[in-house]
Write a structure and sequence with these properties.
The chain has about 675 residues and is of the alpha/beta class. The termini are far apart. α5 packs across α8, α15 crosses α16 and α22 (about 475-490) runs antiparallel to α24. The chain has a six-stranded parallel beta sheet, with helices on both faces. The protein has a six-stranded parallel beta sheet with strand order 11-16-15-12-14-13. Strands 4-5 form a two-stranded parallel ribbon. It folds into four domains: about 1-95 and about 190-275, P-loop containing nucleotide triphosphate hydrolases (Rossmann fold); about 110-180, Arc Repressor Mutant, subunit A; about 285-375 and about 550-665, Rossmann fold; about 380-540, PCRA, domain 4, CATH 1.10.486. The longest helix has 24 residues, at about 500-525. The protein is built from 30 helices and 18 strands. Magnesium ion (MG) binds near residues 32, 33, 218 and 568.
Length: about 675
């Protein structure tokens, strides 16, 4: 059998096009991801060194899946492995080598949202903005928008739209210099810094251009302008760029993604070859019919044909009196399938739009003892305990990291009270020095009580000691972290904080999971390092991922996912829940009311239904409790748009019957 037998003719054409710009523009489930996976294999078979092939995907999970698939196709014999990465991890990789060229330390740390907020808070304080005027979150939103547009602090004052914007622009400058002072970057900086590097350091750009001879990008419809500039620079000399995507699945407009990049690909790259795929291999006829009917309501989209090949059962529409019975009904059906029909739990996914939705489902799943796995809400790395431990590791890796230091300076308590911290901090700010540097001065000036001075000294020597240990023995990362956690007395702290045995156990389990994550990291990496682990954790957080490496847990568990995190994935059975106005489409978009806002929700709905391989059920509750009050809901407009006339007639008839029955009862 030839190696291209598992591909249809247009897929084969795309896979065989190994050089020059190539665009695969096609609907959901038509094998776009399959094309780029096979293309890696084809490139390798044609003599391209695997580590010069760069594939960019949207999430860490997608990256991992692609690597697995490539290994599968090549029989697991590829060394070095091809590079599969998200935009963010790729930028980290580049900056680890080159950050110093931009005046950043090579061991820079990445700040997560919470850490960003504390920097934003001090920046606002410095420019004397009262709390009411601009919150740290407001500031970060504005800063995020500027960064997405590639606007640096020096130019932000020119881009202001109102007075608050002006304050924000001034605070943006402070915020950025604070990050820089402690050797930290935020997520948006990663891309901006790489773009700056490529602009200002032609020799570095040249090096990276040589490093990757072929670049491919999945889910290209969701790239933003900064990402586009980055890719364009990287492939400039050879133009070996293959992008695949579907404009109907663009769901990150709110993060600055712009479908114009995929629709305008041929004008940016006039020599581009364009391949269209029209056969959907994933979903049943019925799913595709509904998906096509739905997405036709969006204007300004690229006309595409999507043909289904799989027969199968019809899409089902379920209605429940309230959100509790929605969860009960869906989970009861899942329990039946697992128990009586031998359905594997991992073949079932429940998809939801908002973070309030999964709680009822979790409760039901737990009650019936069905293992489940939740993606896209509060993540493992977002738990307080895990953040504490990560903060320790960050300070060890980068002593200048003030936000992390402040988090752990008195956790567990070591006699350093808040008043002392504030005094030392004020001294550091006025001297413009790092916190650690002014501690001895503050002690000498009698600003630090004896107990606190002792606390500072012991923390300092603990951190310094561990810095050496981590450096001299990176392979033993896992053991070193364990011993650090012991030395810090973190378990005793948990016992002090949580009185109930259950609560304590839960936290201890979290710590164990944390150690597992480190072990998995060291097993996976050829050159593990403390900073490497810290950044893996930071990047996982960004992708809304829990302890995702825990494969044992993943198989054998029902999946609960947000629609955003379901992108690119597929499941034999899908339950999409809460099809109500205000949930899908989201309340914000309904209130906004603009066609663009609703169109993005419609695409999100389209992404959701096209995840289903064999069975799709869409549900809604006819009433829902919000702010303590039960209110009737309005069916999602998407339900009307996706159903056929006959389906809608049947639905209306059923509704009328129910109303009559209810009237008779009273
Ligand atoms: P999405 O738009 O959701 O990202 P996609 O276009 O990337 O989807 P894939 O995930 O690559 O689609 O493929 C969808 C499914 O169809 C997968 O299960 C894949 O294995 C299967 N498939 C793709 N091409 C073929 C083919 N030529 N023959 C049989 N199955 C195929
Ligand atoms: Mg895909």
């Amino acid at each position: 059998m030839s190696r291209l037998d598992h591909l249809n003719p247009p897929q084969r054409e795309a896979v065989a096009t190994l050089s020059g710009p190539l665009l695969v523009l096609a609907g959901a489930g038509t094998g776009k991801t399959r094309v780029i996976t096979h293309r890696v294999v084809e490139l390798i078979r044609n003599g391209v060194p695997p580590d010069r092939i760069l594939s960019v995907t949207f999430t860490n999970k997608a990256a991992r899946e692609m690597l697995e698939r490539t290994k599968g196709l090549l029989g697991g014999r590829v060394k070095p492995a091809p590079i599969v990465s998200t935009f963010h991890s790729l930028c980290v990789r580049i900056l680890r080598e080159d950050a110093e060229l931009l005046g950043y330390p090579g061991n820079f740390v990445i700040y997560d949202r919470g850490e960003q907020e504390s920097v934003a808070r001090t920046a606002l304080r410095d420019v004397r903005v009262g709390d009411g005027a601009l919150t740290p979150a407001d500031l970060l939103n504005r800063v995020g928008r500027w960064k997405m547009l590639g606007i640096p602090p020096s130019q932000a004052t020119e881009a202001v739209e109102d007075d608050l914007d002006f304050l924000a622009a001034v605070a943006y400058r402070k915020y950025q210099s604070k990050l820089r002072a402690v050797g930290a970057v935020d997520f948006d900086d990663l891309l901006l810094l790489v773009n700056q590097l490529f602009r200002e350091r032609p020799e570095a750009l040249d090096r990276w251009q040589r490093r990757f001879s072929h670049v491919q990008i999945d889910e290209y419809q969701d790239t933003n302008g900064v990402q586009f500039d980055f890719v364009e620079a990287l492939v400039r000399p050879h133009q070996n760029l293959c992008v695949v995507g579907d404009d109907d699945q663009s769901i990150y407009g709110w993060r600055g993604a712009d479908v114009a990049h995929i629709l305008g690909f041929s004008s940016h790259f006039p020599k581009a070859k364009v391949v269209r795929l029209e056969d959907n291999y994933r979903c049943t006829h019925s799913v595709i019919e509904h998906a096509n009917r739905l997405v036709r309501h969006n204007t300004g989209r690229h006309q595409k044909t999507l043909r289904a090949h799989k027969p199968g059962e019809d899409v089902r529409f379920l209605e429940f009196p309230d959100e509790k019975s929605e969860a009960e009904g869906v989970v009861r059906e899942i329990a039946y399938l697992l128990g009586q029909e031998n359905v594997a739990p991992e073949d079932v996914a429940i998809l939801f739009r908002t973070n309030e939705q999964p709680r009822a489902f979790e409760t039901e799943l737990r009650r019936r003892q069905i293992p489940y796995d939740i993606v896209g809400t509060q993540s493992f790395f977002d738990r307080r305990e895990i953040k504490d431990l990560l903060a320790y590791l960050k300070v060890v890796a980068n002593p200048a990291d003030e936000v992390s230091l402040l988090r752990i300076v008195n956790t567990p308590p070591r006699g350093i009270g808040n008043g002392t911290v504030q005094k030392v901090l004020a001294r550091a700010v006025s001297a413009g020095k790092p916190l650690w540097d002014v501690v001895p001065e503050a002690i000498a000036a009698g600003e630090v009580p004896d107990r606190a001075a002792k606390g500072f000294r012991s923390l300092r020597s603990l951190l310094d000691g561990y810095r050496d240990r981590f450096q001299s023995n990176p392979r033993r990362l896992h053991d070193t972290v364990r011993s650090l956690v012991d030395d810090v007395g973190y378990s005793a702290e948990i016992e002090r904080q949580y009185k109930s045995a259950d609560q304590q156990l839960l936290r201890e389990e979290l710590l164990e999971q944390f150690f597992d994550t480190i072990r998995e990291y060291t097993d996976r990496e050829s050159r593990p390092s403390l900073i490497g682990f810290v950044e893996t954790a930071a990047l996982s957080l960004r992708d809304d991922f829990g302890s995702e490496d825990d494969k044992k847990k993943r198989a054998g568990a029902v999946k609960l996912l947000t629609l955003h995190s379901a992108k690119g994935l597929e499941f034999p059975r899908v339950y999409m829940v809460g099809l109500e106005e205000g949930i899908l489409p989201h309340r914000r978009s309904v209130e906004d009311g603009s066609e663009t806002a609703i169109a993005e929700e419609r695409r999100l709905c389209y992404v959701g239904i096209t995840r289903a391989e064999n069975h799709l059920a869409l549900s809604r509750a006819t009433s829902r409790t919000k702010w303590g009050k039960r209110r009737p809901t309005i069916p999602s407009r998407f339900l009307f748009e996706m159903q056929s006339d006959e389906e809608i007639e049947e639905w209306e008839a059923a509704q009328q019957e129910a109303e009559e029955a209810a009237a008779e009862e009273t």
